[in-house]
Amino acid sequence: MLNPGVRESFERVGRDLRSWNGGEVAPVLAVRAACGIAIALIATQSIGNPGWAQAAIMGAWLGGVGLLTPDSRTGPVTPLLIGVAGAGGVLLGAIDSPPVLVAASAAYAFALTFIGSITQAIGITLTVSGIMFFLAEHLTAHTSPWLAAGAVVAGGAVQAIMALLPPYYRWAADRETLAGAWTALAVEAEELAADPLAPYRTETLVEAARELDRRRALPAAILEARGQIYAVSAAIGRVASARARADAQDRDTVAFYSEALLLTARLLRHFAAEITTRRPAALDWDVLLDDLANNPVATSTGTIPSEIAGLLRTLHDTGSFASRITGGGDEIVSDPALAHATGKTREALGRLRGRLRPGDPIVHHSARRAAVVAAAMAIGLAWPTDHGYWIPLTAWLVLQADFAGTLTRGVTRGIGTFGGVVIASLLALLIPQTALLLSLVVLGCALVAYLMRPVSMLLFAAAVAGFTVFQIDLSGENPVVAAVDRGVCTAVGASLSIGFYVLVPTWQTRRLGDLLGDLVDSYRDYARLALDRQAHPVDYDRKTIHASIDEVRAKRAALNTAADQAKAEPVAGPGPLSDDALGAEAALSRAARALVAVNATIGREQSDTAGLPGVDAFADAVDGSYLRLAALARGQKPPRKVDLEAAARKLDRQLAEGDSSTRTRRSVLRWESDNLVEALNDASLLMAGWDGDDTPSDAPPRIQV
């Protein structure tokens, strides 16, 4: 029987080979980037193809790749950074001594991989620019390293200028980021309309918040809308909680709340389209409200429930932000450039210092990448032909932080390169070998590659192979021999990366317990803050609880990413497997739903409201339960069990009577405390046995957690 992880790996390779994201194509940007290549070609050929011509063309080529990489910004900064970083790679890669060059390649790979872990944008920039290190010997064959480095910077500068050509929208990437957050909330509302206990799937909110927080200057409307994401999420959770409470009482009421959630999803999708499309559809609030008010439940009561009314008010504010963003002319809020740069630098250095320890996965991956690149560089230097540099270049591009990513990238790049080499070599035999015609073919391959970059990695690799083959024709080499040699080198580099990962792996399966424990800790912090707000509303700090929410989402995103990677690994425990960790996370997510609903019962303007009795004792019991779950997740000896159900019954008795001003809060807390206890019980049952506990997985539900 085939190992499930191996089977999943093969399936992912197949999906990656068949993947096609046609909606991601960016024809305008692809044409701009191809025009940058054309400018570099025309400029170098007009002055007689000097020795640094290939460096200028490669600088323009990589600057365009950086612009077309998914999730990268379309501004001029990215190609400029690629040009500058690539120039440094050329100078370093031009070292004459082979032993020193191998050592330098290891240090270079480690440094770029480790520094690239700060953000995805930095990682993309350094990975793309790192290619120039491995091409240095080829690019400096007929010129000095300094001239080649300057030509690389010039090529990147050409693409930076192309990025500024109209149509250029300064805030386009920021609008897309905010629209992605709204779309994620729309998906959440749709899921909650069908199931009020649906697990969280809003990791996009974390990325959106972080990306917008990194910006030095933004229109005020985008900044305000970014802060309002929390209010929208809380309002959605409040309506979902009301729907859950009505589930066993009145089907018409359930349908009413579900209709409100579906309307929310529709509105959020509209707002997302409004700030990202040229001509958004018109929105008539009166018609929407009339439709909702005509619901039988609203008609019979004469009012819309407070949860739905609050949600509509929040969405109306969201709509006003969307209108302001679309209208433009909003005040630009910016931090001083020097203060922003130094602050972000300190933050990045602090993050890197925190990761600089032997057991950190980033350090492990950086060291593995350094080792495989050094080995590939040594093989490349000993390769009997002039194209050995393709071996370390391929190893650099193929090796990823996870096994499935390395396998799929290696196979896809290998097959795409082989196909592109074969097709381009056949075409090279048929096309007349004139400089003008070959230049046009190079431009055509570059345009196809740019178009395919966000669409299909397989076709992108094939187009890059064609681009390289015809550039070889321009340099006067035998195209067929050089293309075959490059294909063989690519296969060697990809095989080296995959094989080295298997020998020195970072199996995500081994990390799932610790990642789940970290998530439990972040849920515990949020639970304490949410319950303390009910007990002591005057002490509520909005920024603190928002930071706690961001931490929960970040930890959940890390666990989900690792679990997805672990699913394709051909290994087992110790500790939870992928499905085990995700099952426990789903139970913890249901507990968080209850806490979100509790937290949403107090508005921002109600900080002076009265505290509820008995909440402190219940919060202590919940805190102890989370401590036990964190220990179970990590495989540690858990603390003593907490009778959480007894604490919930005691809280229920204390909340039975009270002032009318706290009736809604007491009712929601009594309902949600039962949901919280049930969810934590489920999580405890799922984790039983991970630490060697002899409790069977099919044991009846335990009252204690």
Strand and helix layout:
Layout lengths: L3 H15 L8 H20 L6 H16 L8 H17 L4 H18 L4 H20 L5 H19 L8 H23 L8 H11 L3 E3 H27 L4 H24 L10 H9 L2 H6 L4 H22 L4 E3 L2 H19 L5 H22 L7 H9 L4 H28 L4 H18 L4 H19 L3 H25 L8 H24 L6 H25 L11 H22 L15 H20 L9 H12 L7 H25 L18
Antiparallel strand pairs: 1-2
Helix pairs in contact: 1-18, 2-3, 2-7, 2-19, 3-4, 3-6, 3-7, 4-6, 4-7, 5-6, 5-16, 6-17, 8-9, 8-10, 8-11, 9-10, 9-23, 10-11, 10-14, 10-24, 11-14, 16-17, 16-21, 17-21, 18-20, 18-21, 19-20, 20-21, 22-23, 22-24, 22-25, 23-24, 24-27, 25-26, 25-27, 26-27
Short structural summary:
This protein is mainly α and 705 residues long. The protein has helices at residues 4-18, 27-46, 53-68, 77-93, 98-115, 120-139, 145-163, 172-194, 203-213, 220-246, 251-274, 285-293, 296-301, 306-327, 337-355, 361-382, 390-398, 403-430, 435-452, 457-475, 479-503, 512-535, 542-566, 578-599, 615-634, 644-655, 663-687; strands at residues 217-219, 332-334. The longest helix has 28 residues, at 403-430.
What can you see in these coordinates?
- The chain has 705 residues and is an all-alpha fold.
- Among the domains are: 50-167 and 370-384, no CATH class; 172-330, no CATH class; 510-689, Methane Monooxygenase Hydroxylase, Chain G, domain 1, CATH 1.20.58.
- The chain contains 27 helices and two strands.
- Strands 1-2 form a two-stranded antiparallel sheet.
- Helix 5 runs antiparallel to helix 6.
- It comes from Glycomyces buryatensis.
